[in-house]
Design brief:
Blueprint (H helix, E strand, L loop, with lengths): L4 E4 L4 H6 L1 H11 L3 E3 L7 H10 L6 E3 L7 H11 L3 E4 L10 H19 L4 E5 L3 H4 L1 E2 L2 E2 H8 L5 E5 H6 L4 H8 L3 E6 L21 H7 L4 E4 L8 H16 L1
Parallel strand pairs: 1-2, 1-10, 3-4, 4-5, 5-8, 8-9, 9-10
Antiparallel strand pairs: 6-7
Helix pairs in contact: 2-3, 3-4, 5-7, 9-10
Length: 245
Amino acid sequence: MTSPISVQLYTVRDAIAADLPGTLSRLASIGYTQVEPWGFVERVDEYAEALPAAGLTAPSAHAKLVGQDLEPIFAAAVRLGVGTIIDPHIDETRWITREDVEAVAAELGEIAEAASAHGLTVGYHNHAFELENLIDGTPALEVLAAALPPEVVLEVDTYWVEVGGVDAAELLARLGDRVRFLHVKDGPKTKDDTEQVAVGRGTMPVRDILRAAPQALAVVELDDHAGDVFTALEQSFSFLDGVRA
């Protein structure tokens, strides 16, 4: 692993709600140089000031794209220097049949074409159900990958892949260079978010995952955590930095 380590800001959502600049500065003090914002369109003015002040960049960001008014999202992303906008969730009901999944792929392709006019790339981030739902024996996420136009990338949430019953490292090997970002998280592989722990302190095969997708940016995330989240982020950074060394 040679690229910087990023962190999904949903992890520190409560801290950001209270103090956005202070939260970003605290992440930078841990050693993070990159972050992945969410809800950034509504707070673009604050992010535009706070990110450079903390010495942080945001190569990727989450924003609901399918069915949305795209121009404000594109404008905010460009202002913050975001290169890739990732749709974090498309309703589970659209992952049942091949026709439904191929329709999702077509919509993402259309959005990517519009985004390219702004110099932006579009991606998709999975949960567990895209792996649990099988279409002719193949996880729906892989059906999506096969149907996507080449300009659409994937951010594979490796934790939810394994919760969904699929070996994350093997999936990454199959998906190849389509994967540009990884959500790296750890825990006992359950659907109880509060059981997630610092990276390197759970049961996830993190080293195998990173080796399987060396081209992808590692983005630390905890959907929830029973302890102090900043301590978990410090421990996660230390572990990943050690793996990278």
